[in-house]
Design a protein that fits this description.
With about 70 residues, this protein is mainly alpha-helical. It contains two helices and no strands.
Length: about 70
Amino acid sequence: MFLFALAQSTTTVNTGDIIFLLVSLVLLLAIPVGIIVLVVILRRRNSRLKRVEEKLDKLLADKDNSKV
């Protein structure tokens, strides 16, 4: 009887433990996902900036050619 009561008391799971594990899992997954998202955003910004610079250079070159 004592062993049965002891086994029941050690197998209980506290709600706080579950919440802590879920928060830990979310943080563990959020860090790599955040880094990946940041890298993708920075790459898009760089490529967009390059396209705008190329268009601006072309417009300036066309303007210079039309003056002559």
